[in-house]
Amino acid sequence: MARPRRYLVCEPRYFAVHYAINPWMDKDAPVDTARAAQQWQTLIRTYLDHGHQVVSVPPVPGLPDMVFAANSALTLAGRPRKAFGSLFHAAQRRPEAGEYATWFKAAGYDVYQPESVCEGEGDLVPAGRYLLAGTGFRTTREAHAEVQEFFGVPTIGLRLVDPYFYHLDTALFVVDDAPGDGIGGSWGDGTGNRTGEATIAYYPEAFSSGSREVLRQLFPDALLATRDDALAFGLNSVSDGRHVFISPTATGLIAQLTDRGYLPVPVDLSEFHKAGGGIKCCTQEIR
Ligand code: ARG
Predict the structure, then answer these.
(1) Residue whose CA is closest, atom 6 of ligand 1?
(2) Is residue 174 part of a domain?
(3) Ligand 1 atom with minimal separation from the 90 CA
């Protein structure tokens, strides 16, 4: 069932690849900024056409990665007005945290500033009654402990091992958040009861063997993606529970989603792949 969502985004006015902080980024491979702007506008229009709300934070000159709004914070259903802010790993991105915190405060949130590196929904993914938390490249185990303490939700640490999938949201996404039951539900009660489990999709080889086993136990019915689909940013998708906004080149995953009754909606953000980001990276869910 589709559930209307509220997304925070940041227009790519100053988007570029000026430095390299992940294997996708190459300063010598220029970004077509006009094409990036067009692709981003298409994403926004697609969200609006599917009944979702979109709010934006003003872009800041000199912060080319600020377009990746998913790294800004974490909010959860049932925890009104609480936002867990970010502390970026790379010096180049550190000033983004303050810009986003200003937006969340103005929107009425109490913003907690983590003491340890944490990159928002890039590594923190609400899935049913659990918060899945990536580590290995960016967000630290210490931050997992901080976020668990802040929200009081069971936080499952997952170790990423492949530098191409440096954020959890490049290797895993929630296809269906078990409406009303989970902490991810925009309007849910956030009690995280046990009647519904989330459905997720992930690329197993992006995880350490122990983390892979944890995912297998918690989500036995997950969709498993191939490396090709993962490299096509197919796991950097956004789902409203029915429509799945997904990279058009993730063809295997698109077929699997269709088989399970979901409606894939292809949106091409290939210019953003040059910075290591896709649809989900550009989209912060506000709960
Ligand atoms: N260039 C950015 C970085 O390396 C991309 C961030 C992508 N965001 C995400 N949620 N995966 O930090």
Answers:
(1) 277
(2) yes
(3) 12
Q: Residue 151 corresponds to which tokens in the numbers above?
A: 């929200």
49's CB contacts (< 8 A; 6+ apart) are none
Tokens of 86: 């970010």
Domain with residue 82: its CATH number is 3.75.10.10
ipTM above 0.95, yes or no: yes
CA 214 to ligand 1 centroid distance, Å: 25
What domain count does the chain have? Answer: 1
Q: Annotate 192-217 with b (16+ C-beta within 10 A) or e (fewer).
A: beeebbbbbbbbbbbbeeebbebbee
- Domain hosting residue 239, numbered range: 6-12+24-181+197-285
CA of 93, closest atom in ligand 1: 12
pTM for this predicted structure: 0.95
Summarize pLDDT for 117-129 with one digit per residue, the tens.
999 999 999 999 9
167 catalytic? Reply is: yes
